[in-house]
Design brief:
- The complex is a heterotrimer of chains A (391), B (382) and C (192).
- Chain A is mostly helical and 391 residues long.
- Helix content of chain A is 67%, strand content 2%.
- Chain A is globular, with a radius of gyration of 23 Å.
- Chain C is an alpha+beta fold.
- In chain C, strand 3 (86-87) and strand 4 (93-94) form a beta hairpin.
- The N and C termini of chain C lie far apart (85 Å).
Chain lengths: 391, 382, 192
């Protein structure tokens, strides 16, 4: 029964292909998963917008949207209607073709990223040998759309925002990819399906997830930070939300195009969270061996939503980093840490298993963390101060 | 002017490439605390010149007060620094009492101290919230600060009838006698306030992002602060020990034991911490005042409300408002209207050093520095 | 250690998030207009004129002395005094305001008119849902709109109204004491 529930979508796909004429069978077998992705993730986007507003609101001691629909859950419908009926203003001197293409490009490229994420057992759209590489290549193309948006708007502030955004995204690509290299090394393959299958075993009831190794834990934290920076979310949303450049590279967008940018940014967030789950958190595998009766796609979605909840939590708490501090952080802190993570992953492979392996692999990472922390704080003279009182 | 040119040469190594980007962080802006404009000239990301432009909220307060009686100017003073109406009222009442030689009964002095310190608490809390909001913390500390501010404003409404425009002080006392129920509620609030301060500090004080955004930013050197006439927490953050509550000892502040925190570096972090520490000292003052408040009248029973005609002369009354030294200079020529009425606005005078604090820093720092100066446009423009 | 402050901040927000479902203090929103907070007794919005008994003309306490008009800081009150006296509800001939107009869009709710009135005739109302779409006079309130009975005053400001009633009764008693010997010798008829 649980096997059936777990494979329900795969069974449905086989049934549909079997019952369609031979000429269109290949097309049907592709279109169905694509349609599935196109339905699932935008609905997740809709739910996330409400969840984010209500979550932030509860952190700030207030209700979120609670008027539209029961407890406000129909708010995305109202937002969709609003963005579709708004006037689409394009500045007179703007580069019209590029202005139009920027959001389109963003959304297209982001949907491409979903092709290699295994949503459940046997449920991946394209089982490529180099899935991870494909994913990061598609992710890099999103930076181009950001720059297109800023350039085509013919607006000083948009250009400023776009340049900052591109600089930020490029700087954080390096730690992002390097922390996934450690996982690729451990799994021995670039294919996402293989990576998940390597993590789907259990020793006793403890899972084989990579996040439960020292280098996996550090790598996951670094990947998560780089992920936040890639999606331009707080505390790295300087290009977009900084108080003096209003909305950064999408200042000149209104109505549906703005909604597309928003959609693209959130979809990118889901895609990168999906990749983080795949690489570090065991993909669709259950956390304990006695919980495997719950279908795999539910585990996957649950893990992704947990990561999203953490994003929302961090957004509600932390102020923004300034541009040069952002860059400092990426190049001087995260890059050395990711190199140390790769080194530690290598050590892990060649040491015999046991507690000693854990300690030996965790030591260099912890040491580097403390050293870098001290160096960065003293270089910028950040210290906890003690205040005196007048006599 | 040549000092600025020297500074530009010092910062960029050449006399400017002549390609300065001029932006106007205009009156209509999410983070300028009101209708306030800054003309900024940038070289890349660094500020080369900054000129504040204000006057968008000028409402002729001084002229109106010179054409109305002394009592009629009192509700207008509420609207000067609209977040702290009680302290504005007190400064004006103090000046008129100096001018006309009116004495204030004990209970009224205690009531004045209580509402003034409550005002200081809610002002500092809101300011820290706004500073965080400008830094992009998406409103969380602001909401916490406003939660406490609402409690204090509810107290003001129970006492004087209005939350913000209280119109509470009169020449020779206060308008309404604080009832025992009200004092009980104030005691309850003061008892709970340190817990809120602890939570607030835990959220913010050791946050690395906050520290790196504010330490070393917007440094105000000591000599410049004293020469420019800066007062209030900004001055004390630069290390100068000058608190008018201790220097003048107006009212009955001489009876309370409280300390004056001092900073060393004069940057935004120091100013922010000054306000946090001052909030704790205010809580101490409130506890002492609530314990010691005597019974008695709150206004001289023989004092007349209307028709105040002070003898000809001049007086300058000043208090330590939450933003700095708020002073009222009055010249009377014996009639029922003041001959000259002048407000010394601390926010405006503290703004004059904005350029010196922001030169050479990046644009993001301007917003943070402006937030730490603590301006309210109602006071800057009057 | 790097990151310690951030973790503390995250713990604080998590505490607020979970606390908002449990404690009332961490979710202080009042969903107006379904829920309302009780107004403080001393709350003040705009002035209104008080009249005793049920007769608005005769019971109006205001005698058009024009002190509030002079003392009002933004000069929002306009009064026209009547040219002849009319008896009020106690039978004593008084002046009355022919026209008493307050421009509510100018009034700044400072309450000075209430303080300076020697006859306890003008008090502060607490109703605040007053919007109108009449731009050219909807916010200039005449005597008819401003006059409200003493029972209404007792409803909105019970303690204040009780004090005022006490003071007025005292004043009346003193006035009667002064006139009682004269009245006893003059007519022998009780005025009240």
């Amino acid at each position: 029964m649980t096997q059936g529930l777990d494979q329900i979508f795969v069974t449905f796909q086989h049934w549909a292909v079997a019952h369609s004429p031979a000429a269109v069978q290949p097309a049907v077998s592709i279109v169905l998963p694509v349609a599935g992705i196109l339905i699932l993730f935008p609905s997740l986007f809709a739910i996330t917008t409400v969840l984010e507003r209500k979550g932030l609101a509860r952190i700030q001691n207030r209700y979120g949207p609670n008027r539209v629909g029961p407890y406000g859950w129909l708010q995305p419908v109202a937002d969709a209607v609003k963005s579709l009926t708004k006037e689409d203003i394009v500045p007179r001197t703007a580069d019209k073709l590029v202005h139009f293409l920027a959001p389109v490009l963003l959304v297209t490229v982001v949907f491409l990223e979903y092709a290699v994420i295994p949503v459940g057992r046997n449920m991946v759209l394209a089982d490529m040998n180099s899935g991870v590489l494909f994913f990061f290549a598609a992710g890099a193309a999103t930076e181009m759309s950001v720059f297109m948006a800023g350039w085509s708007s013919r607006n000083k502030y948009s250009l400023l925002g776009a340049m900052r955004a591109v600089a930020q995204m490029i700087s954080y690509e390096a730690p992002l990819i390097l922390s996934s290299i450690a996982v690729v090394m451990a799994a021995g393959s670039l294919s996402t399906v293989t990576i998940v299958e390597k993590q789907a075993g259990y020793s006793g009831f403890w899972p084989h997830w990579y996040v439960l190794t020292p280098w996996g834990l550090a790598g996951f934290v670094l990947f998560a930070i780089a992920m936040t920076a890639e999606s331009n979310r707080s505390p790295f949303d300087l290009p977009e939300g900084e108080s003096e450049i209003i909305a950064g590279y999408f200042t000149e967008y209104s109505g549906f195009k703005f909604a597309l940018f928003f959609l693209g940014e959130y979809l990118e967030m889901f895609a990168v969270s999906g990749m983080a789950v795949t690489l570090f958190l065991g993909g669709w595998a259950a956390p304990f061996s006695f919980l495997t009766w719950i279908p795999s796609w539910i585990w996957f979605l649950g893990k992704v939503m947990t990561l999203i909840a953490v994003f929302i939590w961090v957004r509600g708490t932390l102020p923004r980093l300034r541009m040069d501090q952002l860059m400092n952080f990426a190049w001087k802190f995260m890059l050395p840490m990711t190199l140390m993570v790769i080194f530690s992953a290598g050590l892990w492979k060649f040491l015999p298993s046991g507690v000693l392996r854990w300690l030996i692999c965790a030591a260099p990472i912890a040491l580097l963390y403390v050293v870098l922390g001290r160096v960065l704080q003293s270089e910028r003279r950040i210290e906890k101060r003690v205040y005196r009182y007048a006599e | 002017m040549s000092a600025v040119a020297d500074r530009i040469v010092e910062l960029t190594g050449d006399a400017g490439s002549g390609q300065l980007l001029e932006i106007s962080m205009g009156p209509h802006h999410p983070s300028t605390h009101g209708v306030f404009r800054m003309n900024v000239e940038l070289e890349g990301e660094r500020v080369m010149k900054l000129k504040p432009v204000f006057g968008y909220l000028h409402r002729n307060h001084e002229k109106i007060a010179e054409n109305a009686s002394y009592l009629a100017a009192m509700p207008y003073t509420d609207r000067l620094d609209y977040m702290c109406s009680m302290t504005n009222n007190w400064a004006y009442a103090l000046s008129v009492e100096k001018l006309a030689g009116i004495a204030v009964p004990e209970r009224a002095e205690y009531a004045r101290v209580i509402v003034a310190e409550l005002t200081r608490l809610q002002n500092h809390a809101s300011l820290i919230g706004f500073l965080m909001q400008d830094m992009g913390a998406s409103g969380t500390p602001l909401m916490y600060a406003f939660r406490e501010r609402e409690k204090i404003l509810d107290l003001f409404e129970q006492l004087s009838g209005a939350r913000m425009m209280c119109n509470y002080m009169r020449f020779g006392g206060v308008r309404v006698d604080p009832s025992p129920e009200w004092l009980f509620e104030v005691r309850a609030l003061v008892g709970r306030f340190p817990r809120f301060l602890d939570e607030f500090q835990q959220l913010l004080m050791e946050n690395e992002i906050l520290m790196s955004r504010t330490q070393g930013v917007g440094v105000l050197p000591r000599e410049l602060a004293v020469n420019a006439g800066i007062t209030g927490p900004m001055l004390r953050a630069s290390g100068v020990n000058y608190d008018i509550r201790k220097v003048d000892g107006y009212g009955i502040y001489g009876r309370f034991e409280f300390r004056v925190p001092l900073g060393e570096h004069g940057d935004v972090y120091d100013r922010y911490m000054m306000r946090v520490l001052e909030m704790r000292e205010s809580v101490k003052i409130l506890e002492q005042a609530l314990k010691g408040i005597p019974e008695g009248p709150v206004m001289d029973p023989k004092a007349r409300l209307r028709g105040l005609r002070p003898k000809a002369g001049e007086a300058y009354g000043r208090i330590e408002s939450p933003k700095g030294e708020l002073g009222f200079y009055l010249i009377s020529n014996g009639t029922h209207e003041p001959y000259r009425y002048r407000v010394r606005p601390p926010s405006m005078i503290n703004l004059t050093v904005l350029e010196d604090m922001c030169l050479g820093r990046s644009v993001a720092d301007i917003v943070v520095t402006l937030g730490s100066v603590d301006i309210v446009l109602g006071e800057v423009d009057r | 250690m790097l990151g310690e402050g951030i973790v503390k901040g995250l713990a604080e927000t998590a505490r607020n998030f979970f606390g908002s479902y449990v404690e009332k203090d961490r979710l202080t929103t009042v969903q107006f207009p379904e829920e309302r907070l009780p107004q403080a007794e001393a709350a003040r919005v705009f002035p209104f004129l008080v009249y005793d008994t049920d007769d608005m003309e005769k019971g109006l306490r205001c005698v058009a002395c024009k002190i509030c008009e002079v003392e009002c800081p933004p000069r929002c009150i306009t009064i026209e005094k009547s040219t002849e006296k009319k008896p009020d509800f106690t039978g004593k001939p008084q002046f009355y305001p022919e026209k008493f107009e307050i421009d509510v869009s100018v009034c700044m709710s400072c309450q000075i008119c209430v303080e300076v009135c020697p006859f306890e005739a003008i008090k502060m109302d607490t109703a605040f849902e007053l919007s109108t779409d009449d731009r050219f006079g909807g916010l200039r309130w005449e005597k008819e709109r401003l006059a409200k009975p003493n029972e209404y005053y007792r409803q909105i400001h019970p303690m204040e109204a009780a004090e005022v009633d006490e003071q007025l009764a005292e004043k009346k008693a003193k006035a009667e004491e002064k006139h009682a010997p004269a009245a006893a010798t003059a007519e022998g008829a009780a005025t009240r």
